Amino acid sequence: MTVLPLAQPCELPTPILRVSDLRQWVYCPRVVWWTHVCPVGKVESFKMRQGLAKERRQQRLQKRRTLRAFGWRHGHIEANVQLFSPELGLSGKLDMLLHTGVQRFPIEIKFTHGPARLNHRLQLAGYALLLEEYYGIAVPHGYVVRLPDDTVDQIPIDGPLRDLTWKTMQALRNTIRHERMPPASTLPARCIDCEYRHFCGDV
Ligand code: SF4
């Protein structure tokens, strides 16, 4: 008699993440709960609505920024580029994509002062992984345009940042798969104008 091996238990599907989830995880890990595990409608404050309208206006203007601002003479810039990789289980809409020869560089527009923070760098690395997957090229760096300072920062997509990006994606997926609510942000000030403040009963 032939004994067939027992069927392997079904593995939980791999959740598709958005590049913005990487940024949100740094802001507050609980956001992933309200967006992926137990989705709720966001409550946008007046201040946030005003801020978003201003950001959209500024973003439209930034799309006209020339190659020279990034130190390139040849190529072109494409705005609002939708990216998706089933292999990475990752999707996102990139603010701008710089094409020069066979090279591609992600560009993100930010509205905060000072050097690019970890959340910006993780987001840029997420887009770099998507571009590498799609074009089959290396993406050694990307750019962050800081509107308030009117500066462009070149951000290396180096080994430690890549490691952290993979680990963050793993942490996000574990949270979604096991439906474990992460603790509230350790910085209560972040809860004040958070879209999910009405749903977090413990803050
Ligand atoms: S209200 Fe506070 S704890 Fe809840 S998601 Fe927002 S920042 Fe995180």
What tags apply to this protein structure?
single chain; 203 residues; 6-stranded mixed beta sheet; 6 helices; 21% strand; disordered N terminus; binds iron/sulfur cluster
What features would you describe in this structure?
The chain has 203 residues and is α/β, with parallel strands linked by helices. It is 37% helix and 21% strand. The longest helix has 20 residues. β3 and β4 form a beta hairpin. Strands 1, 2, 3, 4, 5 and 6 form a six-stranded mixed β-sheet that branches. It has one domain: Alpha-Beta Complex (Lambda Exonuclease, Chain A).
Bound molecules: iron/sulfur cluster
Which stretches of 5+ consecutive residues score pLDDT under 50?
1-10
Calculate the terminal CA-CA distance, rounded to whole Å.
62 Å
Instruction: Tell me which CATH architecture applies here.
Output: Alpha-Beta Complex
Class computed from helices, strands and strand pairing: alpha/beta
Order of helices and strands: EHHHEEEHEEHH
Mind describing the biggest β-sheet?
6 strands, mixed
User: What global shape is seen?
Assistant: globular
Helix content: 25-40%
The proportion of residues in beta strands is 15-25%
CATH topology: Lambda Exonuclease, Chain A
Helix count equals: 6
Rg measurement, Å:
19 Å
Which whole number gives the mean pLDDT? Answer: 86
- Number of folding domains? 1
Question: Quick one: how many beta strands?
Answer: 6
- CATH level-1 class: Alpha Beta
